[in-house]
Amino acid sequence: MAAVAFVNLCKIFARHHVVIRDLSLTIESGETLVLVGPSGSGKTTTLRLLAGLEHPTAGRVFIHDSDVTDLPPHRRGIAMVFQNPALIPHKTVRANLEFGLRLKGVDRIAERVRQTAATLHLDNLLDRKPHELSGGEKQRVALARAMIREPAILLLDEPLSNLDPPQRLLLRSELAQLKQKLEFTMLYVTHDQEEAMSLADRIAVLDQGTLRQVGTPTEIYGHPTDTFVAGFFGTPPMNFISGRFAELAGRKHFVFDAGQFELHENSVPLKNGDALLGIRPQDVALEALDRADVIGIVQLVEFLGQQTVVHVDIGNECVVKTFAARPDLHKAGDKVGLRFSRHQLHFFDAASKRRLAVTAN
Ligand code: ADP
Ligand code: MG
User: Are 105 and 250 within one domain?
Assistant: First the structure.
């Protein structure tokens, strides 16, 4: 059974500002769905529509098959965690956790507090007040406060965004482990593509209020449906090269300003004409000049510790990024060859920017 269903949801704010366009999406029971998109794409608005803090301009919202579109927030069985942890400042962690339960008249409060505190590693912090906690600890308390209510659905709006990088990574992996243990249905919002991939059962990608693609992290990364999704995931992002398909000596080639190469028989697009080639940095190899698909000039070598990113200018304002095995192999101004892995090519229609079907799929 779907825990959540958005059906043809639209939200238009004042002055005809369309923030959500015809959104249809379901979240299965026990699933973690991560809604990802750039800032302003409508993620928070979608959460607020589910929470009942906004009313849709059109469309319906269902929770466990019942239409909640007109229900107030407190009757929807949801709990929310925000970017800034909302804790009661003068109360201890224990009292913060107990607070909502007392209001609801729940029994076994002490036991529930103990269990939830253990799950979120708060056992030793129960007698502290919020100002005695680090940012990551505060956010763990906020999560505990939401979970202890045993909501039907847990909504999280960029809960890690305000943490410094070490705390963010720690809490991210704790959340990923927690998700495996508990059977919560979660709608998790983030603008961070890596966070989305690490936490999601499925990812929904939002761009200016339009749902671009829904799929597992590997589907989204491996088969992006358009250049927006393709460019959103991965660091550095996918390279795009404009060109066209052409028959040369009876064989299908991709031809671009700086070069051309024959396509593998399993990845010949079913369509002719102008196209964009998409290829991820790890699928471009630095290669001897005589074996390269294209020759370019090194523009920049970025040493990032475990990785060295090389930016190669192949002309016509096209810069291809790839990884070098070592930081000292190349320097700006060097002439280098690039070879594209034939099995990792993505092709997109030049006009619509949508993925082109190829013979293999
Ligand atoms: P995100 O969470 O993805 O950053 P939001 O859902 O907060 O995006 O906002 C999406 C768009 O809707 C933004 O352009 C924002 O300015 C606009 N918006 C959000 N809330 C309101 C509101 N109450 N009135 C008018 N415009 C709003
Ligand atoms: Mg937001």
Answer: no
| CA of 37, closest atom in ligand 1 | 3
Q: Which ligand is the nearest neighbour of the Cα of 40?
A: 1
Query: What confidence score (pLDDT) does residue 360 get?
Result: 64
Q: Predicted confidence band at 361 (pLDDT cuts at 50, 70, 90)?
A: low
Q: Are residues 201 and 292 in the same domain?
A: no
Per-residue model confidence (pLDDT) at position 107? 82
Residue 358 located in a structural domain: no
Q: What average pLDDT score do residues 83-100 get?
A: 92
Sign of CA dihedral 282, 286, 292, 293: positive
Q: How far is the CA of 53 from the centre of ligand 1 (A)?
A: 13
- Where helices occur in 105-245 by DSSP H, the ranges are 109-119, 135-147, 165-181, 193-199, 217-222, 227-232
Q: What is the DSSP letter of 185?
A: -
Is 328 exposed, middle or buried (CB count within 10 Å of its CB: 0-12, 13-18, 19+)?
exposed
Whether residue 30 is predicted with pLDDT greater than 60 in this model: the reply is: yes
For the Cβ of 38 lying below 6 angstroms from any atom of ligand 1, the answer is: no
133 CB-side CA count, 13 A: 26
Structural domain ending residue among the three candidates 206, 231, 256: 231
Q: What is the pLDDT of residues 39-63, one digit of tens each?
A: 999 999 999 999 999 999 999 999 9
Interval 261-270 mean pLDDT: 81
First-last CA distance in the chain? 30
For 215, the domain range is 2-231
Q: What is the DSSP letter of 315?
A: S
Q: Which residue puts its alpha carbon closest to atom 12 of ligand 1?
A: 19
Model pLDDT for residues 126-171, shown as the tens digit of each residue: 999 999 999 999 999 999 999 998 899 999 999 999 999 999 999 9
> Does 186 lie in the same domain as 143?
yes
Cα(305) to centroid(ligand 2), Å: 32
CA 226 to CA 7: how far, in whole Å?
23
- Ligand nearest to the backbone CA of 38: 1
